[in-house]
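Q: Could you fold this chain for me?
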Amino acid sequence: MFQVQINDTISVHQPPDTNNTKILTVKVDSTYAYPIIQGNLIANNYSGGKGGGLDCNNSSAAVINNIFFKNQSVSSGGAISCRNFSTPEIKSNIFFGNLSADSTGGAISDLKAALAPAATRGFRKYLTIKYNDFWDNRGGTFYQ
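A: Sure. Below is the predicted structure, expressed as structure tokens.
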């Protein structure tokens, strides 16, 4: 289960003077399901811990065709943190201007994500990172 806070500031259907923030709660049976995060602008987020834009914590999402822009974390993964048996597929994304304050992956950090014993229950066996563009990420582009 994870929660996402959505702030709709672009929609032409929303009056400009209202609070357009909503909380979306998603429940996923992670034994067999791969959440798909696709086609989003994930920008200007801050985490006091890990994963400024996205924290894959015991989750193996498919993260495809997104833009990660100016996300920041205090530790590990300014844009994406992969930890606690997470093996996401991170494919065809753009990472620009993300920051990990402790220099452990301005764009992506892999904190032993590939050690997933749950691979026998339908999870991917390894973290997959392919076909991404990385620009001006501070704190190291990738940390493992």
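A (continued): The CA atoms of residues 74 and 101 lie 5 Å apart.
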